[in-house]
Amino acid sequence: MSAADPYDAIVVGSGAGGGMATWALARAGLRVALVEAGPWYDPADEAQRTQFRYPWESPRRGASTRLRPFGDFNACIGGWELDGEPFTTADDTDFMWWRARMLGGRTNHWGRISLRFGPLDFKRRDIDGLGDNWPIGYEDLKPWYDKVDKLVGVFGTNEGLPNDPDGFFLPPPKPRLHELYYIRGARRAGIPVYPSRLSILTKRINKERGVCVYCRQCSRACGLHADFSSSTVLIYPAVATGRVDVHSNTMVRKVDTGADGRATGVSCIDRENRRELRLNGRTVVLAASACSSARILLNSISARHASGLGNSSGYVGRYLHDSTGASRAAFLPELMDRDIYNEDGVGGMHVYTPWWLEDTQLDFARGYHLEIGGGMNMPSYGFGFAANQYKRFLGERVGGYGNGLRDDIRRFYGSRLSIACRGESVPQYDNYCELDPNVVDEWGIPALRFHYRWTEQEINQARHMQDTMEELLEAAGGVLLGGKPGPEREYGLTRPGEIIHEVGTTRMGDDPATSVTNRFGQLHDADNVFVADAGTFVSQADKNPTWTILALAWRTSEHIVEQMRQRNL
Amino acid sequence: MNKTSRRETLKSLLLAPLAAGVASATGCATGGVVNWNELPREYSYGRTGAERQRDRKLFAETYFSEHELVTIAVLCDIILPSDHANGGALDAGLPEFVEFIVKDRGNLKLPVRGGIAWLDSYAIGEFGADFVNIGEAQRLAICDRIAWPDAEDPALRPGIRFFSLMRDLTLTGYYTTEQGFRDLGYQGNVANVWDGVPEQTLQRHGLRYEPEWLEKCVDQSRRDIIASWDDDMNLTS
């Protein structure tokens, strides 16, 4: 193939959406260019491995740095601030923006919580009159969720819940000790609890990938490929077809379009030698993450697309929304002086509570789920801080020095139970990102400027989260830690962007005047440009977005293949 | 200055005016020298180029004076002494860990430097010399006043804050080493097959698995059999 020959598809970004598109398109026989802004990555490569490291293998013992904000052993290369790649926020508004720069993107360190959206999640406007419905429903996506379950692997249980659909699950692991205390508390409080649903292989699904060895380190990426990362599950098999060229360390500047307004390829820059390059393609699939894809579209200005590609509606960047979050922890006196054994388990919770008040009248519109943490974690930087603070609950004096501290450490080790809530926010037209006219990154690409404010809906929801967490932790036998955040701290509500579930910037819809793509992620304004990341979400349920990104990206890819077959593309 | 010559300088400075006090204060001290196990200065654990560069810079940077490092060593040794089968702070190389992490975190630099200065000033006021140059009993008398956060004397607040910080750094630096793992009895970070809470632990806590929950959980004897399902989403393998 000569340099001038166009690829059948150029996929921009290698996370969940880009990995799935690359895999599905290459599998269908298309020649694909996968463009990733960061380096090639494989957790099985000794030079990149952080799994199974002991804390003393790091001079900072796993503490976070600006280059690894979730800790020194976390797999994700990227962060909240990237050298040479600024972004801004408009006056009095707030947004945190996580960007991964590596093959597989954020799927290398995510929580693997893999929840299908339910039937209600696609039609929230019908229920509460807020925001908009999706143009598609659960029945449209169900076959794709089914396929994703089988291809990728996810453990969980079929509970027949109306808005938390059943799936093709692998069996879940048994609960840990602190999770048994949580179950006891939930039963006492009358709040449901079920086995969690995580894309971790508790059972073999093929000959290529390994089975979980229960190290609790999915956030370090798995060298056995026993959890879902886009790289290990999708991209390596795609590359093995021989039909995929991976252009790593390559940053896309814009989508190039011809006189007819259709895409002809992408303009990029090689980050290592700062050389400009151009890739030609019959189709372009943007999966650079909701905000990065919006940024590329807004920067793709031409005579035909004067306000940016796909932006005739003015909706590119609009309806940006993230999940809500709040958390609380407790000390469980019954776990003092506990037996110490290996209870690592999988990289995340073994039990969780899905939203259970769908039919209850509340002073906020949408729900949240509860994620459970605690137990005997591997010590890393921060372990032993305020080592004997729990003594005050026992009427004993806190502080001191000497070998008695060793007894305190062992006495309180693993006696913590924590809850994190993740909720659905109501998408707002006025929460958006746009190009900042005054700031460029080191590649000369205009930076994003964010406008984001929570509404009363999210703040009231956070108050409810705090009440629920207190009730559950106390019912489990816990002594609450820290204060309960009140209205002055918006009830501990996380900052916009902080949960890293940002979606909605290129939302799908049937009306080109109020949406950016159609129901297949295809731009209304250019039929050979697609969005395969969470930008197309009309609303982000309280479910984590990855499973829906995968299902939508697969569906979009099959649509591309079908349209090519019919010679419409 | 390389590692060895810096250590040599440290020793010779200690030997002159501080010998008696330090020698008696620390379990590891012999002949008036504070000894500790060295920590590596080369690490390889999946770093990017930018990270390697950052760590090289941190290792090359000198922040603490020898006097400050000796004071840190003496404090760490008081907090977690070496007269224990699993070793103490100096066995776990604490002074070097504190030195690195203070440079790495940045926001710890002033609290530690200022804390040492407060401690010396207080020791001079009470006993007529720097903290490391007073007697062991005098050092412990000062620690007894600042090691308990509920102490009511407002004049001691800076010292209490500093001692709490040094306790945090000492414990975190110790429990993230092999000695610390042994001391804790930590069992994890190895490949294994999790099959639930040990039976005797369940009994001890008066808990049991709900039978209907347990039925849904993985049968670990079948974990290597490739999964298959019927059309009704039931696992069949």
Question: How would you explain this protein's 3D organization?
Answer:
The complex is a heterodimer of chains A (569) and B (237). By secondary structure, chain A is of the alpha/beta class. Chain A has a domain of 261 residues: FAD/NAD(P)-binding domain, CATH 3.50.50. In chain A, 20% of the residues lie in helices and 16% in strands. Chain A has nine helices and 19 strands. Chain A has a six-stranded antiparallel β-sheet with strand order 6-13-14-15-12-18, covered by helices on one side. Chain A has a five-stranded parallel β-sheet with strand order 7-2-1-11-19. In chain A, strands 4-17-16 form a three-stranded mixed β-sheet, covered by helices on one side. In chain A, strand 9 and strand 10 form a beta hairpin. The mean pLDDT of chain A is 97. The longest helix of chain B has 19 residues. Chain B has one domain. The chains are: A alpha/beta (569), B mainly alpha (237). Chains A and B meet through helix 4 and helix 7 of A and helix 3, helix 5, helix 8, helix 9 and helix 10 of B.
Per CATH, the superfamily of the domain at 1-41 and 99-153 and 228-323 and 501-569 in chain A is FAD/NAD(P)-binding domain
Number of helices of chain B: 11
Strand content of chain A: 15-25%
Which structural category do the helix and sheet elements of chain A fall into? alpha/beta
Number of strands of chain A: 19
Low-confidence stretches of chain A: none
CATH class of the domain at 1-41 and 99-153 and 228-323 and 501-569 in chain A: Alpha Beta
Secondary structure category of chain B: mainly alpha
SSE order of chain A: EHEEEEHHHEHEEEEEHEEEHEEEHEEH
Which CATH architecture of the domain at 1-41 and 99-153 and 228-323 and 501-569 in chain A would you pick?
Answer: 3-Layer(bba) Sandwich
* Overall mean pLDDT of chain B: 89
Shape of chain B: elongated
> Mean of residue pLDDT of chain A?
97
Give the helix/strand layout.
The complex is a heterodimer of chains A (569) and B (237).
Chain A: E1 9-12, H1 16-27, E2 32-35, E3 78-79, E4 88-89, E5 99-100, H2 124-128, H3 138-152, H4 177-189, E6 194-195, H5 230-240, E7 244-247, E8 250-257, E9 263-270, E10 275-280, E11 284-286, H6 290-298, E12 324-331, E13 351-353, E14 368-374, H7 404-412, E15 416-423, E16 432-440, E17 446-451, H8 456-475, E18 479-480, E19 529-531, H9 546-565
Parallel strand pairs in A: 1-2, 1-11, 2-7, 4-17, 11-19
Antiparallel strand pairs in A: 3-5, 6-13, 8-9, 9-10, 12-15, 12-18, 13-14, 14-15, 16-17
Chain B: H1 3-15, H2 19-25, H3 49-60, H4 66-79, H5 94-105, H6 109-127, H7 136-146, H8 157-175, H9 178-184, H10 199-205, H11 211-216
Helix pairs in contact in B: 4-5, 4-8, 6-8
